[in-house]
Amino acid sequence: MNPATPNQPVLKGPTTDWDNKFCKRCSLMKSSAIREILKLTQQPDVISFAGGLPAPEIFPIKELEQSCSNVLNGAGEEALQYSITEGFLPLRQEIAAKMIRYHVEAEAANIFPTNGSQQALDLIGRVFIDPGDVIVTDSPTYLGALQAFRAYAPRIEALPVDDDGVRIDHLEEVLKKHTVRFMYVLPNFHNPVGVTLSLERRIEMVKVAAKYGVPIIEDDPYRELRFEGEDLPALMTLHKENVVYLSTFSKILAPGLRLGWVLGPQVLISKLVQAKQATDLHTSTLIQMIAHDMMKRGVLAEHSKLIRKVYGERRHVMTDAMEKFFPEGVRWTKPQGGLFLWVTTPETIDTLDLFKEAVKHKVAFVPGVSFFPHGDVHNTMRLNFSNAKPEQITEGIRRLGDTLKEALR
Ligand SMILES: Cc1ncc(COP(=O)(O)O)c(C=O)c1O
């Protein structure tokens, strides 16, 4: 007899009907369309512009190794111990100093490290949204935010995005008509569209939101990835009291670390701390200490320069190739930073269908429909320009151009 098998009969018979055990909220949880698509694009010969992945060949691995060693040799016991939910104070101080350099007033007490910005979005959904509450988002918007918020069953009022960012001509109407819990916006190098919110709209937006007492959630992971043009003030700079600011180390260091932060009023941070306590007790102490060491040594600031250079070049390679290979009638954005650009095709094309054809041509993108809160636009796609190398970008865009030409024929 196998000694690992207990000397008892194993129970056989009716099994649990798992699907009927889940709570109603589970029906609102959906897999990310992007993660599903990424599975299809993982064949080695497919050039993928689908993921939101940084360029892995420039991850600062040696510097991270150095920081790991500094932390483990200097404060290994603290790094490996349970810790407070509020986060590692020296890291919060470094982040506050960084925010101040960006003209955002900040103190360590108002900075809350999370497991990536994605966790911050979930915690925000958790503390703000009761089923049926109204929130405002841009449309299209970051899919991960939709995924996080939808689990709490809000009604979404969606504002369209144009070349100057989210349009706010109907904002006041929406805020007057509904009791809005919060407004979620992506001011810099919008994911998925790549555009940046103009200064005029920033000023008007904070004014209108303040008039109706609606907090703005400013999700800003790409601010430091500007390779062209001038920085614009954060919404938080324009109205500190009414804005909650989110950012992350994912794009300036490495997403696998899972480290982001929230900057907000004390009363909100305390609520988020309670919500996070129930989720995971605290963000990894080791990772917080490593990120702190990287910041303190000035490595992160240097590394951001390299990222901007590499991504700037790749964006140019991509848009130059589009000029050359894309058929007439197809339009695209030209972001001054970030990771993504946005393509709009003639309305006769449904990019979900085009995606299947593109994969046959060994190139992939994300069909735009899933980024729209109401799933109502079918002729757009998101392309990532940070991950593929320049020669792959040119070849991938050539393949996508051929796919588009065939679809338009
Ligand atoms: C706009 C936006 N917010 C949040 C996130 C999540 O970032 P993190 O890796 O910090 O969870 C992303 C990731 O792509 C993003 O684009």
Structure description:
- The chain has 409 residues and is an alpha/beta fold.
- 41% of the residues lie in helices and 14% in strands.
- It has an eight-stranded mixed β-sheet with strand order 2-9-8-7-6-3-4-5, with helices on both faces. The protein has a four-stranded antiparallel β-sheet with strand order 10-11-14-13, with helices on one face.
- Strand 10 (331-332) and strand 11 (340-344) form a beta hairpin.
- The mean pLDDT is 94.
- Bound molecules: pyridoxal-5'-phosphate.
Features:
8-stranded mixed β-sheet; 409 residues; 41% helix; 4-stranded antiparallel β-sheet; binds pyridoxal-5'-phosphate; alpha/beta; single chain
Helix content: 40-55%
Strand composition percent: 5-15%
* Gross morphology: globular
Bound molecules: pyridoxal-5'-phosphate
Largest sheet: 8 strands, mixed
Q: What pattern of helices and strands is seen along the backbone?
A: HEHHEHEHEEHEHEHEEHHHEEHEEEH
| Rg calc | 23 Å
The SS-based structural class is: alpha/beta
| Residue windows where pLDDT falls under 50 for at least 5 positions | none
List the helices and strands and how they pair.
Blueprint: H1 33-40, E1 47-48, H2 61-79, H3 89-101, E2 111-114, H4 116-128, E3 134-139, H5 143-150, E4 155-162, E5 165-166, H6 171-177, E6 180-185, H7 199-211, E7 216-219, H8 235-238, E8 243-248, E9 260-263, H9 266-280, H10 285-296, H11 299-325, E10 331-332, E11 340-344, H12 351-360, E12 363-364, E13 366-367, E14 380-384, H13 390-408
Parallel strand pairs: 1-12, 3-4, 3-6, 6-7, 7-8
Antiparallel strand pairs: 2-9, 4-5, 8-9, 10-11, 11-14, 13-14
Helix pairs in contact: 2-10, 3-10, 4-5, 4-9, 11-13
